[in-house]
Amino acid sequence: MSLQIHQFPCRSDNYGFLAHDPGQGLTACIDTPDAGAINDALDEKGWRLTHILNTHHHGDHTGGNLALKQQWGCTIVGAAHDAERIPGIDVRVSEGDAYPFGAMNAEVFEVPGHTTGHIAYYFAGEGVAFVGDTIFALGCGRLFEGTPEMMWNSLQKLMALPDDTVVYCAHEYTQANARFALTVEPGNARLVARSREIDELRARGLPTVPTTIGLERATNPFVRPMSENLRATIGLSGADPVAVFAETRRRKDNF
Ligand code: ZN
Ligand code: FE
Q1: How many domains does the chain have?
Q2: Distance CA 46, CA 43 (A)
């Protein structure tokens, strides 16, 4: 693959990501949780920042935009629908756009739910998706602005990607998500096994991000409303997928 990705922890539980195209010497950071940490990562790799790809407007995703733009003169890409909330935005993208990055394209998915203007970036040729706070390993973003139906449709868009797609989500929430997931789908053997692996990784201080679409499809309760075990556990055996998703999200909010 021609896209080199460097992931690093920052703030309390965010991940920063640099995506580098060695062919043209381009480097994008996906969101700007912490300008200092991003500059340290750029130093470490010897890369120059040329782009910021924002997923949504929250401070832990755009907080470093203006400082980094002033320092590097980089191009800031964000959602057209949310342009007024993306500091320093230069390029406004919408569903279906293919933003050129070196020899690659970042395909834009509108994935509202966590916020109404949330987008994800999919590098199809590289099999990589940057999803911000839409889907997490074993979790999904809180519904600060959108409805359950909106978020369900957004998650379905991501779940339509190939199983081996590598998914970079913006937070290390996985251990807490696993504890919750086990309460709603205790009969999922792959979930039980994965939660043990997560505990082992975290005990050694290692990240559980990235994940893959296939792994989430098999273990993440927020994209598994078809699971009989999940439905029975939350008392919604005959309900439609949106109702099952909404109840799962409600229970997680109160967990
Ligand atoms: Zn957020
Ligand atoms: Fe966030």
Answers
A1: 2
A2: 5
Nearest ligand for residue 56 CA = 1
23 Cα: distance to centroid of ligand 2 (angstroms): 31
pLDDT at 1 over 90: no
C-alpha of residue 129 to centroid of ligand 2, in Å: 16
Mean pLDDT of 168-177: 98
Ligand 1 mean position to 114 CA, how many Å? Answer: 7
Torsion angle in degrees (nearest 10) through CA of 14, 154, 161, 91: -70
| Ligand with smallest separation from the Cα of 118 | 1
H or E element at residue 184: helix 174-184
Q: Say if residue 150 is in the same domain as residue 235.
A: no
Tokens of 248: 């799962």
Q: What is the value of pTM for the model shown?
A: 0.98
Provide the CATH number for the domain around residue 93.
3.60.15.10
Ligand 2 centre to CA of 170 (Å) is 6
69 and 48, same domain (yes or no) = yes
Query: 15 and 126 share a domain?
Result: yes
In the block, which residue shows the tokens 């296939």?
214
Ligand index nearest the alpha carbon of residue 60: 2
- Residue 105 in any domain: the answer is yes
For residue 231, give its domain range.
175-206+216-253
Looking only at the bridges linking them, the beta strands covering 166-169 and 211-212 are: antiparallel
pLDDT for the residue 2: 87
* Tens of pLDDT, residues 29-78: 999 999 999 999 999 999 999 999 999 999 999 999 999 999 999 999 99
Residue 211 in any domain: the answer is no
Residues 144 and 239 in one domain: no
Same domain assignment for residues 36 and 109: yes
